[in-house]
Amino acid sequence: MTLPILETPMHSCVLPSSNERINFRPFLVGEQKILMIAQESDDQNSQVREMIRLINACCDDITAEKLPTIDLEYLFLQIRIKSVGETSDISMNCDQCETENEVTVDLEAAEVKREKEVSNIVKLTDDISLELQFATYETMKGLNITTEETNTKEAFQLMQRCITSVVQGDEVFTQDDFTEKELEKFMDSMSLEMLEGVQDYLASAPTLSVSAEFKCKTCDNEQKTVLAGIGNFFA
After folding, report:
1. Contact 35/53 with Cβ under 8 angstroms?
2. Per-domain boundaries in the chain
């Protein structure tokens, strides 16, 4: 006797940076178990790798490593909502008495925000410009990219990897046309004002955030916190 085949429902969402519609299925029990084990560890790289593996498994015709981080986070959140539920219980400390409180976060209220629109084409001179892309997992691979700990060398390496092409007049030089050393030398010859154009674009990357409100169970202090980054607002 053969066991029945379980049908898995399909869903879809629109990626925030490209407006591309993606079809996906919820993750399965075995996949969720592996994800939970990864989340219990302090290894952030392992957590990200597992998130990417699940996205590739659950989605049609997509390479998660090449997605901008905002699309990666947004897509994983949608898969998580359809797989586990629309809410998540997280622990938050009161900002007055520091008591740990369990807070229910509405994941469907998460928003994609971008402070300002900045063109991905940075004009360096009348004849030369750069075409940029937002950081992806692939471009960040091997780098320690965090808000507080990123060193200058790694910050410049990330900027270099986010340059998709150098345009001079009618000629377009892509990443296949120059080496990393050649691009580094090119960037070293840029003025500070030119560099600011690159930094402005990368700093304008959209973020995923959700508001969490709670009253402390110990001191009754009411507080509201905005959680940014998918790892901060669900388990």
Report:
1. no
2. 10-85, 88-110+209-235, 121-203
Nearest to 117 by CA among 228, 194, 200: 200
**DSSP three-state, residue 97:** coil
Q: Is the Cα dihedral 20, 18, 227, 154 positive or negative?
A: positive
Total residue count of the chain as it appears in this document? 235
Structure tokens at 89: 């219980």
The single residue listed with the structure tokens 């075995």 is 30
Q: Could you tell me if residue 47 is left (phi over 0), alpha (psi between -120 and 50 degrees) or otherwise beta?
A: alpha
CB 92 within 8 A of CB 225: yes
pLDDT band at residue 143 under the 50/70/90 scheme: confident
66 DSSP assignment: G
The type of residue at 61 is D
Starting at the edge strand found earlier in the chain, the sheet holding 163-168 runs 121-123, 128-132, 163-168, 171-174
Give 52-65 pLDDT, tens digit per residue: 989 999 998 899 99
Q: Please give the Cα distance from 70 to 229 (Å, whole number).
A: 9
DSSP lists the bridge partners of residue 228 as 209
Residue 125 pLDDT > 80, yes or no? Answer: yes
> What are the C-alpha distances in Å from 188 to residues 128, 155, 168, 195, 198?
15, 13, 18, 9, 13
For the chain, first and last CA: distance in Å?
A: 39
- Nearest Cα to Cα of residue 19 among 63, 59, 74: 74
CA-closest candidate to residue 159, choices 189, 207, 196: 196
- C-beta of residue 93 within 8 angstroms of C-beta of residue 230: no
